[in-house]
Amino acid sequence: MTNPDANEIPVWDPPVRLFHWTLVIAFTLAYLSQGEPFEELQDRLDGEWLQTLHVWAGYTVAGLLLFRLFWGFAGPRHARFADFVRGPRETLCYVKGVLTLRAPRHLGHNPAGGAMIVILLLSLSGTVVAGLVLYGADKGLGPLAGLLLDSSEATIHSIKEVHEFLANFTLLLVVGHLVGVIWESLLHRENLARAMITGRKRA
Amino acid sequence: MNPRQLINAVALAMIATTTTTTAIAAGEAPATPPPATPTKAAPAQAGITKEQAIQMALKAHPGEVTKAYEDTKKGKKTWEVKIKGNDGKKWEVYYDIKTGELVAEEAD
User: What's the complex ipTM?
Assistant: First the structure.
């Protein structure tokens, strides 16, 4: 092992990293506790407890999203939306560069990664909102319960479909995100996953 | 403390608060409309047991019970019984714990 810290500089601040990994844990728990592919596992566990876990995980994601919105404006350079949100043209151009192995390295988020973050945040927001609506309409619980208690079974069913679709769409985005991280790591010969843990990257 | 450290501290506090508010939110009471009948020290016998709920659900939808547990439906505390029905459908049947009445039934 060659001296790893010599020419590395801090890129991801502690709140960004804490946000990222807490989000990973919360989304995983939410998906495992109610996600359709894990129904057999869920049937072997206590239903009430799973429901509580799912709601906790959902509220955690909601809080994290609000934090990230704030941090995207108030955080340090590489945490800011202005640092990584690019227009469609620049993003597509970068994606083309990535696929032809000619994309330049970025210290912060590259344009494709930035676009992925925005879509992920939007998809997660939609999932959380649909979840809150479902919680109010179906169970009669949560902040929206008073507004939605009279919803018909058909409406509840549709909301459930939307919530599930968005959760699965988010999972699909996560897969895309991972492919992007691996691809870029190989392309620029650096461990991007490790950088999200240590916060440091090659200068 | 310089401004950057202050903002960092605020950010960490926000993340920490998330978990706390979550705890409060998860513990909140169901938005149950007050029962129409006066429930002055309701007798303990009123209502149904989980086993009774399972029997009722099986009568309505014969099959194999995959799960039965306490769940909230429409602001009411219910027994949710999940059945892999002989009709090939997955049923979810909800009975009010207090009154035993059917609150909802769904088939996937």
Answer: 0.76
